[in-house]
Batch of 2 targets.
Target 1
Amino acid sequence: MVSQPATGAKGMGDMVVKRTRADGRKATRRVAKPRAVIKPRQRFAKGRRPYFFADPAIDKLLGMVMALTGEVAVLRERLDTHERLAAKGKVATPANIEKYAPDLKVEDEREAVRAAMLSRVFRLIAVDDTRAAESEAAYQDYIARFSR
């Protein structure tokens, strides 16, 4: 069997494969040239890391908090999916979880939960220092009410 590049407009990137059949006749066919292997996408940003606070360690801590907050949000949505499947009497298999498509009402509920979580996570950043003491008392009251 011999392979060589095809010529002509139709076979620009194809290969011509020539071989001899079992009965002695020669056969020629065009086959697609193997495509180049596509590298996976780069999963980190290029360039220097932006700093928002005076201490770079605080920026790193904020990055870790953001990553964990994202993971908690995903876990909370998956748990919600489990609960909704159980309410319908379905088993929470990986296939059922991936097939589940929430309706607009469920999406709105999830968005409200997500927004409330983000406001709690970023509460201290969003509140200026003069109001921080006042809001700390309200926050502790909020924690006390829901920890019972």
Note: The radius of gyration is 29 Å.
Target 2
Amino acid sequence: MRLVRLAGLLVGLGAWIGGCHCLAACAHVPPRPAEVDAPPAPEAPPGPWFTLATSRQGRPIRAATFGHGPRRVLWVGGIHGDEREGAQATAALPDAFLAEPGATERVTLTVIEDLNPDGTHARRRTNARGVDLNRNFPAQSFHPGRNGPAPLSEPEALALYELILGWQPELVLVAHSWRAAQFVNYDGPARAAAERFAALSGFELRPSSALAPTPGSLGSWAAECGLALLTLEYRRGTDPRAAWEATRAAILAVVLGDLLDQPPPDP
């Protein structure tokens, strides 16, 4: 698999790894079979979007980076192909972020459009090999089977894992959906961000510890590594435009943190 990334994405990597021992300690990639490699990625499309990696069926996993501030935030537009309620939020977030005064000087926002384009194309939860990508991470709770033969056996999960370890975001947000409920849950040191999101959106707050076990999930791995992660569970079937409007202010608030209340950095 060939990863195609913007050169500026890894600026300052050494300093971030040195300052975040928790994620550095999680930087172990288990051996994986050769068949994990996907077809070579096509060239990056024009504009801010580039091809981070390719899916098992060769579809591009697109990403874009906005801003150049010290706070690093990663938005993942979807992991399960049948949970597309957050699609409009993913599409609208960049412009909303860029419209906030001072945001680009204070925050660097990276957006992954869709981690599972094969699943989205087929309208199913899993990737093309039938693996639940949100159970394919190297958490201690990983179990082989429908979660994959080994942690990070799938190119889509591996791409996100490598990006997180390489870029060291301060906060990760992931869009999901849930039947008959809408809530935000959190892993790692993200309770304050989750509380703020819940207060502004009206979503219920549910810590991951209050939910059923999710072996090998991104959240489980994040908790073990001390990575702050918010999972936004939109109500299944909600119109994506309505979902964005209901959570726009909350998303921007946690992306920006409290930085907009602080004086700008020295030039």
Note: Confidence is low (pLDDT under 50) at residues 1-22, 29-46, 259-265.
